[in-house]
Amino acid sequence: MMGLRYPRILGKQILKLIFLILLFICGVQFTRYDRNKSREISAQKDFDHRSVRKDLNSNKSSRNIRKYIKLTKLAKSNIHRAFGGLDSNGSPIIDRKFKYDRAKQLDYIPSVFEAVNHHEVPYISENITKMFLVLPNIKYEEKVAILTPVRNAVRALKRFGEQVGKLTYPHELMSLYFGEDGSIDNTIEIANITAHQLETQRKFHTADVVRLNISGGFHGSDYVRHKPEVQRTRRAHMALARNRLLRFAQDQNKFDHILWIDSDVAELPADLVQQMLFTNSDVVATCCLTKTRGHKMKYDMNSWRETNNSINKLSKLEPDYLVLEGYRKSLRIYLPDLKSEGRVVPLDGVGGCALMVKAKCHRSGLQFPEVVYKHHIETEGLAKMARDMGYSVVGLPFVEVFHEV
Ligand SMILES: Nc1nc2c(ncn2[C@@H]2O[C@H](COP(=O)(O)OP(=O)(O)OP(=O)(O)O)[C@@H](O)[C@H]2O)c(=O)[nH]1
Ligand SMILES: [Mg+2]
Predict the structure, then answer these.
(1) With a 6 A CB cut-off, is 179 part of the ligand 1 pocket?
(2) 380 lines ligand 1 (CB under 6 A)
(3) Predicted confidence band at 79 (pLDDT cuts at 50, 70, 90)?
(4) Where are the domains of the chain?
(5) pTM of the predicted protein model
(6) Is residue 172 within 8 Å of residue 205, measured between CB atoms?
(7) pLDDT at 70 over 80
(8) 285 alpha carbon – ligand 2 mean position (Å)
(9) Does ligand 1 lie within 6 Å of residue 217's CB atom?
(10) Other CB atoms closer than 10 Å to residue 67's CB: what's the count?
(11) Is 13 exposed, middle or buried, given 0-12, 13-18 or 19+ CB atoms closer than 10 A?
């Protein structure tokens, strides 16, 4: 018996030693990766990646961070990224030779290339995209208020109700408020029916319609509404409607997050809320696209990042000049084109198609500017204001919300 004991103890010691060596190797790998990551971040010094990093690090759920790092690492090793870097002006180097074959899904993440920069968003294979969408298996407890301004929205509300009703975030943690004004169709009636269904059938905590009673606003066909000369009036009114609705919601409950969703969205990812919460950032936007004959196109051009060129252009404008995205070349980079940077990317402008803001930011005074703020108004103005208040503003290039065509 004595003879057998020593080899057994020795065996145990050897196993212990191997375990410790493995632990040490894993530690070194992790630190090395982290160091590389920070080097990569500081290399792109034109953009404030640090705030995203800080957010991820301050995430209460460290499992989120570990998963993020693991996935990014995995994605980095497995995916060829065609990101060409930045030119001396801080703009992405555009691959002008790139040809996107619509018949094929890409098995790598493209850099910003000219065609994409303007209209089309290529399909990337599911194997790749799913790596940027994995969520931690945690119990959610944060209360979310979905706020939706509506005017003449009868056509869109049924589909909106279905899409919101299919969200997989715990329904008892979600409330929804429509903020209506100036409709000349049955919007109030249909919005009430939609709210009632969400509350009774989908078991939302609350769902209701708020009459905002704002005089004015902008009426007119789609064609007239999108003329550049009416944008200041139209969007100032939208900002006012959003601010009134926000105030109402904040009087109802102490929400943790405010999620703005436009009524004319055609398709929402079921895990939209969880994806946005994953960032743990103050202001979060998703891509807002349309599907035209099966092709993905950029729709809402309001989620963007400045480049040195665009900042230079802005510096020459009168302070009150309103810059309109999507109307003419603004020299910015748009959210759907930033996939090569990873899952969460810093932004300077956001759109309202699907936009999440931490309620505490609104409580501390963050609003939708009703007059021009740093050349912007409404949602884009909010992003600029948020940055000035020290809040993080990010986008999710892999999360796609589809707007009606
Ligand atoms: N309360 C209120 N809501 C509005 C008003 N105008 C639009 N909305 C709603 O605000 C959201 C965004 O408005 P849209 O007209 O879709 O703005 P947009 O996406 O820039 O424009 P489109 O390209 O035409 O969709 C939608 O939910 C509209 O129903 C308004 O004057 N008052
Ligand atoms: Mg719209």
Answers:
(1) yes
(2) no
(3) very low
(4) 1-43, 139-403
(5) 0.81
(6) yes
(7) no
(8) 15
(9) yes
(10) 16
(11) exposed
